[in-house]
Design goal:
3 helices, 66 residues, single chain, mainly alpha
């Protein structure tokens, strides 16, 4: 898998847009599912989701295509 962050289809770092483009999904749906999972999973799940998002934003290269 060659994941890349979205350069144009982004809100913050482009991670959700890049994942959506890689699988051919709607980027807003990926953002919504990410937010719901961060809040809906029992326990303190917002912090791990944010940490994973920031790490992916730091290590994934940015795409020039999308």
């Amino acid at each position: 898998m060659d994941f890349k962050r979205a350069k144009r289809d982004r809100w913050l770092l482009g991670v959700c847009g890049g994942i959506a483009h890689n699988y051919g999904w709607n980027s807003n749906l990926v953002r919504l599912v990410t937010a719901v999972l961060a809040v809906a999973i029992p326990g303190i799940s917002v912090v791990p989701v944010l940490i994973i998002y920031i790490i992916l934003g730091a290590i994934l290269p940015e795409s020039e295509e999308f």
